[in-house]
Design goal:
This protein is of the alpha/beta class and 250 residues long. The chain has helices at 18-29, 41-53, 68-82, 105-133, 154-174, 192-197, 203-208, 218-222, 225-229; strands at 9-12, 33-38, 58-62, 87-90, 136-141, 179-186, 240-243. A 7-stranded parallel sheet has the order 3-2-1-4-5-6-7, with helices on both faces. It is globular.
């Protein structure tokens, strides 16, 4: 497709399906060499095999983003196989639609550990490698619900708001090392997380409140991410890229 990321090495979490798999395919087509991670080992291996068969350099590393050792191993693998790490895409995430009173402590802890702590651990692990590479770019996946509120999905929305501010904090801290940090804020996307996690009757309500009157395709979100990851965005850090079909305009 292109060479916007030629020579770059990227680590993408949550890459076994849906949005993460779309990110992996697009990054590979733009010339990046990849380490892709997910807790779903078999599906992750299938994504890696498909991309490798197309001539791309892709290594699968199954790990849990909630575990620091897994992140450290993924970063070490990138440096061992490809000699550096330039890009981190923090994409792994989980969803529970329960509201404040309906959210269990177990669900709250699981969502915070995956969506929020996982992002922090990813940045923490990647930063040293990016310093060794002379800089880099981190793209954290938030949500439109990291910018605006809505009833329900209490833990999910709370973590996505936290990701937005974690991104800004890291952007300030890492600027001196030429590491840029930005967040992406998708609206509703046609992915397994939505089809499995959002009640069937709720999807038309969200779509109806979206000016473009449809869900996004995963690749429509992915198209914005290589820009933030590439040298084209060399003066962009601490910013939000909103890709929501106009949902947040109302």
């Amino acid at each position: 497709m292109g060479d916007r990321l030629a020579g770059k090495v990227a680590l993408i979490s949550g890459a076994a399906r849906g949005q993460g798999a779309a990110h992996a395919a697009l990054f590979a087509s733009e010339g990046a060499r990849l380490v892709i991670g997910d807790i779903l080992a078999d599906e992750l291996g299938a994504v890696a095999a498909t991309l490798t068969a197309k001539g791309h350099e892709v290594v699968a590393h199954a790990f849990d983003v909630r575990e620091e050792d897994g992140w450290n191993a993924a970063v070490a693998l990138a440096e061992e196989r490809f000699g550096r790490l330039d890009i981190l895409v923090n994409n792994a995430g989980v969803l529970d639609m329960a509201g404040v009173e309906g959210t269990t402590r177990e669900s709250w802890d699981r969502i915070v550990a995956t969506n929020q702590t996982g992002v922090w651990l990813g940045m923490k692990a990647a930063a040293a490698a990016m310093r060794r590479a002379g800089g880099g770019s981190i793209v954290n996946t938030s949500s439109i619900y990291g910018l605006i509120g809505s009833g329900g999905a209490t833990a999910y929305q709370g973590t996505k708001g936290a990701v937005r501010l974690l991104t800004k904090t890291a952007a300030v801290e890492f600027a001196g090392a030429s590491i840029r940090v930005n967040s992406v804020h998708p609206g509703i996307v046609d992915t397994p997380m939505v089809s499995e996690g959002v009640p069937e009757e709720v999807i038309p309500i969200i779509v109806g409140a979206t000016p473009l009157q449809r869900m996004a395709r995963p690749e429509e979100i992915s198209y914005g991410v290589p820009y933030l990851a590439s040298d084209e965005a060399s003066y962009v850090t601490g910013s939000e890229l909103v890709i929501d079909g106009g949902y947040s305009t109302q």
